[in-house]
């Protein structure tokens, strides 16, 4: 759902997860934990609260996707930044400009799997960086969420490599 408010110069999207009976039952405990840790937010101009996933529940699946992408496409190592732990405002603008440029390229070339993979990889890295800096995260809950994702711990060398770049 896209929301536009005249007092805000940009619209933004709210994504609601799609669930079916099978995937709900198999992930019921995780979904209940995520709901328990979600937060109520009110969209400007509306008095209706929305439940918003915790930063930890957003960051960890993105980390899993980044790690899996590096495993499947080792050439992404070439574009893996040395460090994102601290960026100036100007560096953030440059990184986001790069992501937007890739997004435009990907829209022009919808069949380019490599470009789509690069876009998702960089977008996830910067999403993780922004979430961890702007909203922060609770380290104990982060580790609990991490424990629900077997694949994140099955590739310790890639996990360490990504964490060195992104996690404060």
Descriptive account of the structure:
With 168 residues, the protein is mainly α. The chain folds into 2 domains: 51 residues, no CATH class; 112 residues, no CATH class. It has 8 helices and 4 strands; from the N terminus they run ββααββαααααα. A two-stranded antiparallel sheet has the order 1-2. A two-stranded antiparallel sheet has the order 3-4. A hairpin with an 8-residue loop joins strand 1 and strand 2. Helix 3 runs antiparallel to helix 5 and helix 4 runs antiparallel to helix 5. The radius of gyration is 17 Å and the shape is globular.
Question: Strand portion, in percent?
Answer: 5-15%
Largest sheet: 2 strands, antiparallel
Q: Briefly note the structural class of the backbone.
A: mainly alpha
- Classify the oligomer: single chain
As residue ranges, the low-confidence spans are: 1-6, 8-13
Give the overall silhouette. Answer: globular
Order of helices and strands: EEHHEEHHHHHH
Based on CA atoms alone, the radius of gyration comes out at 17 Å
């Amino acid at each position: 759902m896209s929301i536009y408010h005249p007092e805000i110069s940009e619209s933004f999207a709210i994504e609601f997860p799609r669930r079916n009976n099978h995937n709900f039952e198999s992930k019921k405990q995780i979904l209940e934990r995520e709901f328990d840790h979600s937060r109520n937010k009110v969209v400007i101009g509306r008095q209706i609260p929305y439940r918003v996933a915790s930063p930890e529940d957003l960051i960890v699946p993105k980390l899993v996707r980044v790690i899996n992408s590096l495993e499947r496409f080792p050439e992404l190592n070439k574009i893996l930044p040395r460090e994102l732990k601290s960026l100036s405002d100007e560096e953030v603008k440059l990184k986001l400009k790069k992501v937007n440029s890739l997004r435009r390229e990907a829209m022009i070339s919808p069949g380019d799997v490599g470009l789509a993979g690069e876009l998702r990889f960089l977008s996830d890295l910067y999403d993780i960086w922004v979430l961890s800096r702007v909203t922060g995260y609770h380290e104990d809950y982060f580790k609990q969420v991490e424990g629900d994702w077997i694949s994140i711990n099955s590739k310790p060398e890639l996990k360490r490599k990504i964490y060195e770049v992104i996690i404060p």
